[in-house]
Design a protein that fits this description.
single chain, 254 residues, alpha/beta, Rossmann fold, four-stranded parallel beta sheet, globular
Length: 254
């Protein structure tokens, strides 16, 4: 990710929930004139017109909103950026998959939205958080993102970083991928102390295969995660990680 030349921004549309939160956190909510259908925090942004899905802008809507800048993590169709450029609308793509990328996003938006002081404060918070030595909980954690098909975070994922910073170990964190689909047979051979469940429903209570896991039988399942806090690399993730630590600490092993 390279730092763009700052041309200033007047009317902004964000199709990224994390970036929408960050824009508001930096004190620039007044610049927002549109959002994606999944941008839902803070509550006040819900009143904004929906100008696209995640990574899929609604071209005509964005033009009608007289936007100057579109912010997104990615684009399903990169050619949309060229079409928007013809109408004088810049597109800023900001991948935000981990803490490093989040820090870069803060730096870039501080320049683009002319809020360098607020951005510096957030960067200082990020750096202080990363310097802190995590409390070792000695817990092996399985994070279930999807249940059917089974999907868990790999080494490159944001959630692997969340688990590590919380002081635990991701049981599928040695696989050099963002996400993976491990087999139940493979997982059953591993020592799993805690299951974090962010898949829909509570299928771990219904499917017999989950009852084979000791963590499930001992009711060591965290199933009340606020997904918008921990699954989005954004301003609230630090508080989310602290809350996760508090939950995991009850099962800490010496």
């Amino acid at each position: 990710m390279t730092l763009p030349v700052c041309a200033g921004a007047g009317r902004v549309i964000s199709l990224s929930p994390a970036m929408t939160e960050l824009i508001c956190h930096l004190g620039k909510e007044d610049l927002l004139v549109g959002r994606s259908d999944v941008c839902d925090f803070p509550e006040s942004v819900k009143k904004l017109p929906v100008a696209g899905n995640f990574a899929k802008p609604f071209l005509e809507k964005i033009i009608s909103l007289k936007a100057d800048l579109l912010i997104t993590n990615d684009l399903i169709n990169p050619g949309v950026a060229e079409n928007l450029q013809r109408f004088g609308i810049r597109t800023l793509m900001l991948p935000c998959r981990n803490l490093d990328e989040y820090r870069k996003c803060v730096q870039i938006l501080g320049r683009e939205l002319q809020c360098a002081s607020r951005a510096e404060t957030e960067i200082a918070r990020i750096d202080a958080f990363r310097r802190a030595v995590p409390e070792k909980l000695n817990l092996n954690v399985l994070w279930v993102i999807w249940d059917a098909p089974l999907m868990t975070p790999g080494k490159k994922s944001h959630l692997n970083e969340v688990i590590t910073v919380a002081g635990a170990e991701n049981v599928t964190g040695k696989v050099n991928a963002d996400y993976l689909r491990p087999s139940f047979d493979d997982l059953l051979r591993r020592k799993i102390d805690v299951v974090i469940w962010s898949a829909s429903g509570k299928k771990w209570k219904q499917r017999r295969v989950w009852q084979k896991f000791q963590a499930v039988r001992k009711n060591r399942v965290v199933d009340n995660i606020d997904q918008s806090v921990l699954l989005r690399p954004g301003p609230r993730m630090f508080e989310g990680i602290e809350r996760l630590k508090g939950v995991l600490r009850q099962w800490k092993r010496p």
